[in-house]
Specification:
homotrimer; globular; 12 helices; five-stranded parallel sheet; about 350 residues; 9 strands
Chain lengths: ~350, ~350, ~350
């Protein structure tokens, strides 16, 4: 009968924004994934809806083209009963040169309480979060971070492996890590879960990762960096192939797509080095024949479609958690604004 | 009291997809039009809504610009209570080169059960239907097919004429048949109803139709092909003017738009050759002064606005029928997928 | 007990369309602002919604890029329970050259009862209103008019000043009046309220305003035109800085943006000439450092964010009023249409 040992001890979500996975403790990660389980149950029940965000304005502001992430957030927000507004940069005042701060203030004055933002400039959602009175969710900023992708990847891995314990399991992030916000956000979550993470690709696409690996993620959690694809794949439990962003390849970092495919593309032969039931992930959209061969992409180990489906449940979880943090009486508010 | 003569004998809708009108029997066509009548009643009742597609994800994927067809499907799906997502190619991963198969799988994983698809490549919706676990509705693919347009044209003709019996009535399809998915899909439905169909235009824009007319639609149903506009219009009950797609006219198939208008444009003088109460159709958007003169387009015989209004009711019918076919226990499912 | 003195005497809204503020009497303006007060109360109550436009089709047709105005109308229409369709010119048949009249007829046949329209050509919404059977709301046409902006500016001014009486108060419209629909619509409402309006800017950007000032707004209501920014700002109660439309500056009307900023930009020094509690407005998006300095834009006198928030309430008011005018039995209907 000690009240102190009651439910008050259950870890609570404390983040008003979700800008990257670096701020998430293991408890935080478990809260997201447990909430996502509940959301997946809702999605699996035909016609069932939640009222969690009834009357809450969710604005989805995308400054980069995207089908899957934009639609995923839109479906998630609507399934929670939110009032959803979508703004694409091409048709927005952004094309008139309005600043991020002005856009953020404007969207808030128009009723947004949660702002889901994708931007080509690393750090843009942090700038928005300094101004915005509600919650900001980073849906991908430049090369920097894509936190909901890392969380949906984690849910996909755990469900495919049938375990929540990734300690010591070998996870390979393969390809263009340099330009990848997916790689960076995954490094935080995967090392937090104790996975043995390897980052593998051609040397010019690994710039900066050696130094990070030596320093450790969060100053302590080591990972391995290598250009040796066979060494990386040997015994791997999970292989995450990264997209080669053709549009970012002007700088002469790669000799050719054909050579990339020959040396680092995820083929059936290469995948044979991994564990027999290794899980293959890709954040999509895939360049089949470049970073992944079509038979692997469509093969039985591929969890690409699972990732998309898990994305909706994970984003419902994140939206409802940050919205709860705004509504909570003791939530840290924004600085008083003029 | 013979159970065999009960309602079980009423023809049932059996199509999970609607990719073209070639697969529709007369019974199928009647089912669509009868259902459209019910939908039109709903639309005519202010504030009335249906729950037919409550909780069903309908994704509208347009790879070509369109106002009327895109909005028509969107209004139709929302009036049925569906969860509607719109994806325009310009702002989608398609611009990153994602394949039709990947896009289709992604949209399904995001919750789509009905996929409404417009694509500049003939046959693209067939490819999507091979992969997609729900229902695909073709909203226009290349020069090939536009089934809901043919069905709304049929509803418009029947209501304007005040009869469901088109046997022996002369229907003229006038203009650029070569590039027209509207012409092709209409040939299937109109000949199925027994209409006396004439296809008329400059010879280069009739390529392939002579051979089809000789073989017969479905191998049996003949129609007439001619370059003689007076012969075509004489005694016509219905005249359907086709859009001259200026953007497709690079190949030197026509001397000039002015000459086209002079020789084949639907003017009041030409229309005087048809029956006094002949119905004028156009799939829109119209190039007034080219394939149709402004006074005909806005005149009392023009059913162009009726076509648009009928489009919503017909699309509600099609969406509800294919959604019913997915839900039906004995619906033919997709091939098992890896 | 004289029936004639009953509520029938309260002024009633009589406008089916809102194309500009020139047709609004003082009574009309008060009806809009009083209705906006009620709408603001609804918006301030979490989760509260109205059913005023339940089952009413509202189509938002934008032929120019815009975030704030498009989203503002969309949020307003949804908060009233309307069925909202958004059409952007880039993805519409307009890119196929369809005429305004055809587009208008098509959208009506698709179910639109209220058409909110932005168009780069002055007068386009008037053309639409001649054809459309419902109500047309001008959301900005060329250089001509932006009536909801003028009404939200008025609400913002009155609430900031804490009074509904603007008689004799000095209001300065500063900058590129020539290209500004915002300036023109504000001149009607502000002079109707008795304000002492000054229009100030470089001479080439004031073309036509001298003659209008001499003739008087509505033939009677004078205002002042000057190139002398100090004279204009001295003792001002309200300063409305106009956007310099860089994209419209090809004609050599201005030496440079830098020179414009130096001579007419709203700086803290210049603003010190106005009353101590003067209100600063800007229709947005702002070019900070050009027509307004960042410290003024973000300073305590700036009402820019208020303007955005007031826009939603004012647009809810306008949408509900024009929709009421359509529904009213004695509303003047459109001319009978063929």
């Amino acid at each position: 009968m000690t009240p102190a040992s009651g439910p008050a001890e259950a870890p609570r979500w404390r983040h008003r924004h979700l800008l990257d996975t670096d701020v998430l403790s293991l408890d935080d990660i478990e809260i997201v994934l447990r909430t996502a389980d509940e959301m997946a149950d809702v999605l699996a029940t035909p016609g069932r809806r939640l009222d969690t965000l009834r009357g809450v304005g969710v604005t989805i502001l995308f400054h980069e083209a995207s089908t899957r992430t934009r639609v995923s957030f839109e479906v998630a927000a609507k399934a929670l009963g939110a009032d959803v507004v979508s703004v694409a940069a091409a048709s927005s005042s952004v094309s008139k040169g309005e600043s991020i701060v002005d856009t953020t203030r404007t969207l808030e004055a128009l009723g947004a309480r949660v702002l889901v933002m994708r931007h080509p400039v690393s750090g843009a959602p942090y700038l928005a979060a300094e101004t915005f009175g509600g919650a900001v969710v980073n849906a991908g900023d430049g090369w920097h971070a894509h936190p909901t992708q890392a969380l949906l990847d984690l849910r996909t891995i755990r469900r495919r492996l049938g375990t929540t314990d990734l300690r010591g399991r070998k996870v390979v992030i393969l390809g263009d890590a340099l330009h990848s916000r997916v790689a960076r956000s995954n490094l935080w979550t995967l090392t937090a879960c104790g996975a043995d993470v390897w980052v593998c690709g051609p040397a010019p696409l690994l710039r900066g990762f050696e130094a990070w690996a030596t320093a450790g993620v969060g100053g302590t959690r080591r990972f391995t960096v290598t250009t040796d694809v066979a060494a990386a794949l040997r015994g791997a439990t999970v292989v995450m192939a990264l997209r080669i962003q053709k549009e970012r390849m002007g700088a002469g970092l790669l000799p050719s797509l054909r050579e990339y495919a020959a040396r680092y593309g995820l083929s059936r032969e290469r995948l044979a080095l991994a564990e027999p039931d290794a899980v293959v992930l890709h954040p999509g959209p895939m360049n089949e024949g470049v970073e992944i061969e079509p038979d692997v992409a469509a093969g039985p180990r591929s969890a690409v479609t699972d990732q998309v489906a898990n994305g909706v449940a994970v984003r419902m979880a994140v939206l409802s958690l940050v919205a709860g943090a705004i509504a909570a009486p003791d939530a840290p508010g924004p600085a008083a604004r003029a």
